[in-house]
Amino acid sequence: MATTCEQMKKIQGHPCFEQNHHKTGRMHLAVAPACNIKCGYCTRKHDCANESRPGVTSRLMTPSEALDKVREVMASPILGPTMRVVGIAGPGDPLANQQTFETFKLVGEAFPDLIKCMSTNGLLLPESLDRLHALGLHSLTVTINAVNPETAAQIYRHVYYHGKRYSGKDAAEILLASQYEGVQRAVELGMVVKVNTVLIPGINEAEVPQIAERIKGLGAFVMNVMPLIPQADLAHIPAPSTEQLAEVRNNNERIISQMRHCKQCRADAIGLL
């Protein structure tokens, strides 16, 4: 496990971790359309250019098209000098798509100095970490919304795992076990790990501090508590207030560092936060 000083060196230039996030840029490559779970708060049925939320992209890319996009951005006199990170965050789950690994390989060979980053639901994380490590993945975000399977079962409708569909508590147990094991193994491999947690009033707010305690013990670097965007199966639940979100983050700060500048980026976001 890296020391705090080592981690601080590793996060330099990554806008999700660094204080100078307004000066360093990132580009998300939308190469991963397939997903292996159904989150109650996720919908990908529509896209608006003015819409900023996870799971949204205007256009899917192949790995070779993604490499062309990186070349284009890096050659830009405006964007190029700010760009430090290339990430894959969907619009599905990166680990459910072979294109993710192909893209990281191509981009890593062409631009070895760019930080490689990925966001995942964690279902396939334990079995994928050796491949990601070999590709030079620097930082990893895992979305974890519960500690108890009963709570997770209210958030996730089903998961597809190794060719079989699971729902309810069975799905929740598989997902949570993979997520926490994945965080631990990623930290052991030297990756900088951020955990995203969607604050869902009436469902998981009581477990957010428990998530914080557990991921801190596993070596996660920072936690990002995000407000629910009411849509899909959870459209009837109001988003947490600004005051409620701030209170949860302030309380969790006593356990693990909190990210407070998240913009809940699109899967094709490019530029500064």
TrEMBL record:
GO molecular function: 4 iron, 4 sulfur cluster binding; lyase activity; metal ion binding
UniProt pathway: Cofactor biosynthesis; Fe-Mo cofactor biosynthesis
Keyword set, alphabetical order: 4Fe-4S, Iron, Iron-sulfur, Lyase, Metal-binding, Nitrogen fixation, S-adenosyl-L-methionine
SUPFAM superfamilies linked: Radical SAM enzymes (SSF102114)
Domain Radical SAM core: 21-266
The organism of origin for this protein: Trichlorobacter thiogenes
Name of protein: Nitrogen fixation protein NifB
Record-annotated membrane-spanning stretches: none
Cofactors (names): [4Fe-4S] cluster
Similarity remark: Belongs to the radical SAM superfamily. NifB family.
Domain of life: Bacteria
Record's keyword annotation contains Cell wall biogenesis/degradation: no
